[in-house]
């Protein structure tokens, strides 16, 4: 039966995760989420097979479980994308579950025979529970999915403010997780039968296992290289990137303002950061001039792995300051700024006669791009045309 398969896979993923040697806080949250998901599937299986009569002490427990999945999704996303640790205060997200179980306490205190009788009569005497529970479940799903998407979008912007190439930064795992949860909540809101909902949950668990095992560092221990950075197959997962762009706490970041050797501490809230900045217009203009000069002379944008921290180190300034200057003078984030320079370089060298013997992709690589997808996407975004359309319109032929 498909529900049994889902239960076994959930238990398997839970065991794999808790046996992981270097468990992060995100791993612990995901493990707890898998535990409650497995419990939810077990209780539904007992209901479908009518075996719940053999476990009357479990009756009613399943009612509050739909309210835990939204908070778990949000907290897991928060743990992966935020520099701050998820604290005990986050348990407040589970207050609706506690309130629900508090309201159901008279039912839990009933004799087993009476509980079974209530279930056999479709919840007779507890019709009020559905009136409260259904809107609460829908609201919980909508709110926490939206919040999780917001965190993911914010994290993506943060990444683009630090890296000139995001192709190796893998956000797919978290994206699939949120999309999958969204689909399940849509099925719930539409009002399909429980069979459809739990079948969707089982399919979701299958994909969760597949993509989770495929994604480096989720259900396996990440590979530690000699430089102690967590990388595998040249792909960085969401949690690893968060460690890179948020390596210190906010209190530590203050001390780094005067320490150029430790310039990788980045504040995620640009507006607050700039508002507190003591950078004068004169200093900002000088930094921008230095930036333009070093880009023209050394063409650092041709380095596909260039990061904000590395560029700031070249200019002997803090990354926050450089980010502020780029945003203020170029009206772009670091990612768009560097890739626009690469595109301008591509447009320049295609005008040279010697470039005709090269292919379009080889010239793109020469300018600092390291994938055809990134080149095409950024070129279309900046120019409004695809690279081939641009070359055709400019009557340029390449090898």
UniProtKB/TrEMBL annotation:
It comes from the Bacteria. InterPro entries: Homeodomain-like_sf (IPR009057), HTH_AraC (IPR018060). GO terms for molecular function: DNA-binding transcription factor activity; sequence-specific DNA binding. The chain crosses the membrane at residues 6-22, 29-47, 90-108, 128-152, 173-190, 196-213. The keyword Metal-binding does not apply. The keyword Transcription regulation applies. Residues 285-393 form the HTH araC/xylS-type domain. It holds the Pfam family HTH_18. SUPFAM superfamilies: Homeodomain-like (SSF46689). Gene3D superfamilies: Homeodomain-like (1.10.10.60). Keywords: DNA-binding, Membrane, Transcription, Transcription regulation, Transmembrane, Transmembrane helix. This is Helix-turn-helix transcriptional regulator. It comes from Panacibacter ginsenosidivorans. The lineage of its organism: Bacteria, Pseudomonadati, Bacteroidota, Chitinophagia, Chitinophagales.
């Amino acid at each position: 039966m498909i529900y049994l398969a889902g239960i076994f896979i959930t238990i398997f993923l839970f065991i794999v995760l808790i046996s992981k040697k270097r468990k992060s806080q995100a791993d612990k949250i995901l493990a707890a989420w898998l535990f409650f998901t497995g419990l939810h599937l077990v209780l539904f299986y007992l209901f479908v097979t009518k075996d719940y009569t053999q476990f009357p002490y479990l009756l009613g427990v399943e009612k509050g479980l739909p309210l835990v999945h939204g908070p778990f999704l949000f907290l897991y996303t928060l743990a992966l994308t935020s520099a701050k640790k998820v604290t005990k205060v986050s348990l407040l997200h589970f207050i609706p579950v506690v309130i629900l179980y508090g309201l159901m306490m008279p039912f839990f205190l009933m004799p087993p025979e009476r509980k079974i009788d209530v279930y056999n009569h479709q919840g007779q005497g507890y019709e009020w529970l559905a009136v409260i529970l259904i809107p609460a479940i829908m609201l919980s799903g909508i709110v926490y999915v939206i919040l999780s998407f917001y965190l993911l979008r914010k994290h993506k912007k943060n990444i683009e403010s630090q890296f000139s190439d995001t192709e190796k930064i893998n956000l797919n795992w978290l994206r699939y997780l949120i999309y999958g949860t969204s689909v399940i909540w849509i099925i719930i809101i539409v009002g399909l039968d429980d069979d459809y909902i739990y079948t969707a949950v089982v399919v979701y668990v299958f994909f969760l296992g597949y993509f989770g095992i495929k994604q480096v560092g989720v259900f396996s221990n990440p590979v530690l290289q000699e430089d102690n950075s967590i990388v595998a197959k040249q792909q960085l997962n969401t949690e690893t990137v968060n460690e890179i762009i948020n390596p210190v706490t906010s209190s530590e970041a203050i001390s780094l303002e005067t320490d150029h050797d430790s310039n990788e501490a980045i504040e995620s809230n640009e507006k607050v950061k700039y508002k507190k900045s003591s950078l004068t217009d004169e200093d900002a203009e000088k930094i921008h001039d230095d930036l333009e000069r070093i880009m023209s002379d050394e063409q650092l944008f041709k380095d596909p792995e260039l990061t904000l921290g590395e560029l700031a180190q070249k200019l002997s300034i803090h990354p926050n300051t450089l980010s502020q200057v780029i945003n203020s003078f170029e009206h772009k984030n670091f990612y768009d700024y560097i890739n626009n320079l690469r595109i301008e370089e591509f447009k320049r060298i295609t005008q040279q006669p010697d470039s005709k013997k090269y292919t379009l992709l080889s010239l793109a690589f020469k300018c600092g791009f390291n994938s055809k997808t990134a080149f095409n996407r950024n070129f279309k975004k900046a120019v409004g045309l695809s690279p081939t359309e641009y070359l055709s319109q400019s009557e340029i032929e390449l090898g």
